[in-house]
Structure to design on (931 residues):
């Protein structure tokens, strides 16, 4: 029994630990105070922006440590916090309001390390401070919008096909289309079925009531919800970018929720206002045939609805939406020739063609701009969700003078409203309202405190364990301690390497716990070796048997712990997930270091020669 | 060599099994009774509501804060120290007609009157809906973990041992929950994480003993199941004590130095480790014996000694 590792095995151990160690290095460098520049719409961060920034800073006597252009954003590293604040102001003055300039902390990883893919662990909000929001998308509203669009579609389609219907409305059972006779119903059903395969049509005729009910198919329902969520994520991402936050997170959670994390943000009120604002606009034609007086007493013509003007007074608009805010690409506040505030809007290509068709057919007719906003009523629904109130106001009615293209203006707003509307439109409209169901704000001082506490616990725990192992197992204890240290370094290295892994406070707890539990493998092996020695085995045999017998135990014990960590990861959120990640990595690396790592040292020292006594 | 446990021969652990099992059963029943009567002091994560953590520039006057809060129309607030005398935690329950922003603003208005340089360290708001879902998810996670373990252990060992280990885990969870209920300690998400870690840890212990039992059943052909279990527990005892010791050390370090935010986590672990170590010896092994485990049950296991066929790759 020689207990020798072949060369490749020793090399493998060294290489793996070295890689882990290498990627742990970036964590030693700390962070630089930096200023981040992001372009808002219509602008671009380019090499010339970079040189402009460098020049103004140089002229004001501020030394730039390093500045880099990456993924369309500019990062200027400075020497300290005071210069950072000064630099931010200088840069925002120099660049103007087409750019968002934000304070940032950037990892101070040296360039050569970064070039090799090295970066420090990402810290969770509980360690760096910031705001965390969990937002819920109002799917009811998304579905309502969808069925309204369908009603309009059916109406146009049936008319185009010259199929006479008695009425279409959004009823309790779905979209109800009434006909005067069975024949027309069948004809309409066949026609509509061929047109839209994402709806399910059911003949609900009772007596002389010829009714066809249409409901979205399961797949389509799922698709609408998915699209609403995705679209809202994109919109929120755009809005977050407007806030100018470094490294924000906008992520889906489950089927209806979105997580938004804004590291370093303390002004939660503004963040919330921008994020949850659900203003949008829609363009409708004015129903000129409608009698406003009759409509006010409740007799609104089918297909039209009564609205209030912002300036006061009722107006009847056609329900069909000519164009929604989704197609708006840019929006800038400005003033018209009478210095009244207005918002200039430009549309995307599709919106442009829709709008140009609509306006071409309606020259000389009045068109209204409907402003829609969802406000938290402060009340709750029965299921605990926030009740939202939909506020709809007509902000302008203007006669279409000519065919409009992709660029036009909206008037009828106050100055501040024009500004806000432009910002919201620029950032995209939310397809369905979102509301905040969870909010966590952590001050930067608490974050720092959490890191220090975690480190303290780690140092104390580790010191006691290391001393105990050394005293109790002597030579082998020292080896276990080496393995333990290597293990910790590897956990840090792996955490830094995995792009999605985030270190949180419970994550630090997980690392501390790993330290305590990682010695288990070595204790199992060493106790086994001692036992074998007591049973009179030779030194080489004892080592061999000790490692061999302990292996299945260690594997079983760790696999089961790994399973619970995996379940934690799967069902957990935020902090719990962070804990699960470090625990899983810790289990994997500790198995490697305690079984293979220590064996390689033991073999090198005691293996392959005559040894009378072991230091164990 | 230094030895913590130096025993010649075998300790008859199972001799005390019956009284200890009764003690365990009483512990479990007591915990269930406490849970049924007192319930769990669910934290913000599960109930929903708002928490504001503040740091005052000087030791805070809690009763003055309470008075000020009630005049600011922030009803039902719980005000307590959090860590130090300068740190204060204010908890606000979920209300039907509330807005989290307004509530927090009212709190800040009330406290700045007492101390103008008060720092808002942390604000957390959780909607009641989210809380409810988390509680459901948490319970589900524990259940799924137990089922997965049951399957794994049945597959790797034997169903009697699997039942024993899962019973031991359920025992640990119930008793830990019982202590949280009895002392009315706050149960938040980190405590749930702690509880699941306890499951992992306690199972670790159980598996180590079971592994030995399996090995000894095959080796000691003439011994009775009771003897095999006693021998196995004795042989793994030093390891159990050492590992429990080192883990306890780090958890105590976490408890003392880790800060208030992970107190609950450390508390759950601290209790779980005690209960878990004890249950892996008594509850798990004893139940397996009561279920009639014997040598024949161990024979069909094909992967009896992993070390042998792993030699080429692993040490």
């Amino acid at each position: 029994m020689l207990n020798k590792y072949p060369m490749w095995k020793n090399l493998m151990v060294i290489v793996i630990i070295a890689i882990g160690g290498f990627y742990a290095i970036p964590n030693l460098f700390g962070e630089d105070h930096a200023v981040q520049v992001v372009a808002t719409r219509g602008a671009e961060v380019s090499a010339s922006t970079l040189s402009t920034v460098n020049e103004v800073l140089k002229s004001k006597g501020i030394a730039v440590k390093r500045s880099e252009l990456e993924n369309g954003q500019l990062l200027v590293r400075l020497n300290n916090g005071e210069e950072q604040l000064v630099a931010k102001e200088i840069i925002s003055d120099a660049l103007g309001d087409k750019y968002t300039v934000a304070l940032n902390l950037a990892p101070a990883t040296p360039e050569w390390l970064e070039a090799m893919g090295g970066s420090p662990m990402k810290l969770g909000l509980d360690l760096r401070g910031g705001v965390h929001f969990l937002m819920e998308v109002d799917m009811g509203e998304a579905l309502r919008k969808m069925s309204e669009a369908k009603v309009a579609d059916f109406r146009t389609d049936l008319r185009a096909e010259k199929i006479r219907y008695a009425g279409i409305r959004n009823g309790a059972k779905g979209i109800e289309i009434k006909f005067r006779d069975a024949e027309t119903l069948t004809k309409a059903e066949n026609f509509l079925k061929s047109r839209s395969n994402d709806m399910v049509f059911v003949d609900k005729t009772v007596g002389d009531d010829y009714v066809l009910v249409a409901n979205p198919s399961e797949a389509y329902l799922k698709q609408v919800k998915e699209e609403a969520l995705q679209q809202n994520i994109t919109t929120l991402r755009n809005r977050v970018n407007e806030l100018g936050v470094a490294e924000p997170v906008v992520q889906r959670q489950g089927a209806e929720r979105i997580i938004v994390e804004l590291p370093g943000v303390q002004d939660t009120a503004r963040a919330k206002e921008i994020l949850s604002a659900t203003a949008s606009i829609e363009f409708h034609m004015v129903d000129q045939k409608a009698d406003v007086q009759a409509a006010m007493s409740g007799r609104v013509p089918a297909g039209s609805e009564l609205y209030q003007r912002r300036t006061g007074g009722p107006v009847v608009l056609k329900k069909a939406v000519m164009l929604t805010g989704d197609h708006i690409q840019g929006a800038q506040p400005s003033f018209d020739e009478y210095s009244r505030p207005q918002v200039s809007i430009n549309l995307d290509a599709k919106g442009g063609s829709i709008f140009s068709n609509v306006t071409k057919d309606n020259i000389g007719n009045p068109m209204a701009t409907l402003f829609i906003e969802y406000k938290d009523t402060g009340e709750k629904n029965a299921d605990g969700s926030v009740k939202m109130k939909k506020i709809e106001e007509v902000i302008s009615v203007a006669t279409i003078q000519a065919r409009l293209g992709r660029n036009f203006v909206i008037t009828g707003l106050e100055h501040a409203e024009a500004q806000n509307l432009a910002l919201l439109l620029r950032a995209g409209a939310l397809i369905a309202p979102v509301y905040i169901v969870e909010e966590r704000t952590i001050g930067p001082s608490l974050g720092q405190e959490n890191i220090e506490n975690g480190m303290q616990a780690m140092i104390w725990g580790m010191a006691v364990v290391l001393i105990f192992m050394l005293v109790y197992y002597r030579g082998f204890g020292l080896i276990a301690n080496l393995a333990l240290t290597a293990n910790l370094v590897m956990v840090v290295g792996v955490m830094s390497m995995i792009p999605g892994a985030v270190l949180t406070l419970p994550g630090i707890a997980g690392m501390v716990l790993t330290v305590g539990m990682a010695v288990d493998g070595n204790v199992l092996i060493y106790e086994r070796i001692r036992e074998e020695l007591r049973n009179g085995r030779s030194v080489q045999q004892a080592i061999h048997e000790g490692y061999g017998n302990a292996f299945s135990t260690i594997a079983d014990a760790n696999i089961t712990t790994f399973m619970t960590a995996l379940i934690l990861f799967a069902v957990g959120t935020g902090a719990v997930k962070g804990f699960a990640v470090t625990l899983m990595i810790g289990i994997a690396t500790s198995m490697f270091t305690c079984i293979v790592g220590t064996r390689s040292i033991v073999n090198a020292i005691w293996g392959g020669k005559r040894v009378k006594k072991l230091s164990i | 060599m230094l030895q913590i446990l130096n025993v010649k021969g075998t300790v008859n652990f199972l001799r005390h099994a019956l009284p200890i099992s009764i003690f365990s059963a009483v512990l479990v029943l007591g915990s269930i009774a406490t849970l049924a009567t007192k319930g769990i002091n669910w934290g913000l994560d599960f109930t929903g509501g708002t928490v504001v953590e503040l740091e005052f520039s000087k030791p805070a006057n809690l009763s003055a804060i309470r008075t000020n809060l009630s005049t600011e129309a922030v009803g039902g607030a719980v005000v307590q120290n959090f860590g130090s005398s300068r740190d204060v935690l204010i908890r606000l329950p979920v209300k039907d007609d509330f807005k989290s922003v307004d509530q927090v603003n009212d709190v800040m208005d009330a406290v700045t009157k007492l101390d103008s340089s008060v720092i808002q360290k942390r604000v957390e708001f959780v909607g009641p809906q989210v809380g409810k879902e988390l509680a459901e998810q948490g319970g589900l996670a524990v259940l799924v973990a137990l089922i997965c373990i049951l399957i794994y252990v049945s597959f790797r060992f034997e169903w009697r041992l699997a039942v024993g280990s899962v019973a031991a885990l359920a025992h640990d969870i119930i008793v830990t929950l019982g202590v949280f209920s009895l002392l009315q300690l706050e149960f938040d998400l980190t405590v749930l994480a702690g509880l699941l870690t306890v499951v992992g840890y306690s199972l670790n212990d159980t598996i180590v003993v079971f592994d030995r039992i399996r090995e000894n059943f095959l080796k000691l052909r003439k011994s009775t199941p009771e003897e095999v279990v006693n021998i196995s527990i004795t042989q793994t005892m030093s390891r159990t004590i050492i590992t429990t010791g080192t883990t306890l050390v780090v958890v105590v370090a976490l408890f003392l130095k880790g800060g208030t935010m992970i107190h609950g986590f450390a508390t759950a672990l601290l209790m779980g480790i005690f209960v878990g170590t004890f249950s892996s010896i008594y509850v798990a092994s004893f139940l397996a014996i009561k279920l009639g485990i014997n040598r024949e049950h161990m024979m069909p296991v094909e992967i009896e000694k992993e070390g042998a066929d792993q030699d080429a790759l692993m040490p």
Remarks:
- Chain A has a mean pLDDT of 84.
- Chain A touches chain B through 91 residues (CB under 8 Å).
- The longest strand of chain A covers residues 366-380.
- The CA atoms of residues 528 and 546 of chain A lie 5 Å apart.
